[in-house]
TrEMBL record:
PANTHER family: ENDORIBONUCLEASE L-PSP_CHORISMATE MUTASE-LIKE DOMAIN-CONTAINING PROTEIN, ENDORIBONUCLEASE-RELATED. Pfam families: YjgF_endoribonc (PF14588). Coiled coil: none annotated. Residues 7-142 form the Endoribonuclease L-PSP/chorismate mutase-like domain. This is Enamine deaminase RidA, house cleaning of reactive enamine intermediates, YjgF/YER057c/UK114 family. It comes from the Bacteria. InterPro entries: Endoribo_LPSP/chorism_mut-like, RutC-like_sf. SUPFAM superfamilies: YjgF-like (SSF55298).
Amino acid sequence: MPSAIDARLAELGLELPLAAAPVANYVPFVIEGRLLAISGQIPLTAEGPRYLGRLGDTLSLEEGQAAARLCGLNIIAQARAALDGNLDRVRRIVRLGGFVAATADFTDHPKVINGASDLMVEVFGDAGRHSRAATGAASLPLGVGVEIDALIAID
């Protein structure tokens, strides 16, 4: 029987990507007690990275939000892998840390990261409401426009 969160994903028409393997000397997630830390996720698909560039230059706000949403899907995919497929163990999304590759005059970082924040609430309901940071960066790995990490409380 599918979990309640898997049923919610299906209801929303969302399919999770495969959890990406790390590309450097780190692990994709760590469980310590009742906390699950997810390493930074980029807008990666099976075809490779998407949404390359910087906000305020080559990427629009809407593209940035779509990139953040894809990062959020990758966070949920990593959580599923960490929790042996059982997303019902997610008690609360505690915090998202958002990084936005942007020009010096771009100031809508929070609006970009809303792409992931909104997704967490759509999928997990009130348990998806979280604290957050949204900051700018000159560049991000592989030239992507957004990277997001997560801290999740689990059962």
